[in-house]
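debug: dumping io for the single-chain case to check the tokenizer round-trip. Nothing else runs in this session.
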Amino acid sequence: MIYSFDILFSVFIASTGFATSWIALELVRSLGWRDVQAPGDEEGVLRRGAALALTAVIGPRLLLANGYERWRHGTVSLPLYAVIALIAVGWSMCSGVLVLQAAFASGYFLA
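debug: decoded output
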């Protein structure tokens, strides 16, 4: 049996993940992050790690926004966009769980 609190908690987790991805994207944009690289310039390990972590956090927002734009221009069909949206929701739930676990582990909510 599925309780209404389970559904509400799932929505809360997904919205936490989406909010995290949106905040991270706006923070990175305000810091001026650009992935443009000069020819012959190699990426360092730290830059690759930062780019990977950043992509893991902002992925759901990018999937929804880019998928929506492609759907509006006719590049992506509506069923494919629905699959993209479901993947984005699942991804945001995973990142939402990580954010909430980090918040609870910090001890901020225990005081």
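debug: round-trip ok. The chain has a mean pLDDT of 85.
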